[in-house]
Amino acid sequence: QVQLVESGGGLVQPGGSLRLSCAASGFTFSSYAMNWYRQAPGKARELVARISREGGSTSHADSVKGRFTISRDNAKNTVYLQMNSLKPEDTAVYYCNLRLLRNYWGQGTQVTVSS
Predict the structure, then answer these.
(1) For each of the chain's 115 residues, which pLDDT tens digit applies?
(2) In whole angstroms, what is the distance from residue 112 CA to residue 87 CA?
(3) Distance between CA atoms of 60 and 66, rounded to whole angstroms?
């Protein structure tokens, strides 16, 4: 079955960096686009970044453009989110997402940006 396991979250000061990872299994990873979403307390889940199945095409939400970068390693069945210049408003639970016949989600990883 599909499994998505996020890691790499934590507490970081404003201006700091984190790299999130999502290890995928149970499907042919290289055949599907992958997404990162986030959900802040009291807010709807929002799409942060998307990457095509071979990694040649990416898109990022306006709120993170120029600061976050999505990437993938198909040999490792892993998708990454490099987050730089973090702001307090980036505080959220970050989720890896696969859209197959339905949405699949990982358990999420907490990112807290605070001094």
Answers:
(1) 999 999 999 999 999 999 999 999 999 999 999 999 999 999 999 999 999 999 999 999 999 999 999 999 999 999 999 999 999 999 999 999 999 889 999 999 999 999 9
(2) 9
(3) 9
Q: Is the dihedral of CA 35, 38, 44, 49 positive or negative?
A: negative
Exposure letters 54-84 (e unless 16+ CB within 10 A, then b) = ebeeeebeeebeeebbbebeeeebbbbbebe
Cα dist from 55 to 1, 2, 16, 42, 73, whole Å: 23, 20, 25, 32, 8
